[in-house]
Amino acid sequence: MDKITYGAVITVVGMGGTLLGLYLIVCFVQLAKRVFPYREAEKNDERGSSCSN
Fold first, then answer.
1. Per-domain residue ranges for the chain?
2. What is the pLDDT of residues 6-37, one digit of tens each?
3. What is the pTM of this model?
4. Spatial separation of the C-alpha atoms in residues 24 and 35, rounded to whole Å
5. Main-chain dihedrals φ then ψ at residue 43, nearest 5 degrees
6. φ and ψ at 19, to 5 degrees?
7. C-alpha 24 chain-centroid distance
8. Positive or negative torsion for Cα 9, 15, 18, 21
9. Which residues contact 1 (CB under 8 A, 6 or more apart)?
10. Cα gap 1→32, rounded to integer Å
11. Where do the H-state alpha helices sit in 1-53?
């Protein structure tokens, strides 16, 4: 295998591994969003009323 072919193979494998890793991270984040859905904090009237005069 000559140097140009070897370099192209290493480039494709490196970029493919990076894209695969990013794809797996996106899948993990989507799964985490489904397992732990975002909920807004409930407003507490007692906490806010003690500061205002």
1. 1-35
2. 999 999 999 999 999 999 999 999 999 999 99
3. 0.62
4. 16
5. -75, 135
6. -65, -40
7. 9
8. negative
9. 9
10. 44
11. 3-35, 45-49
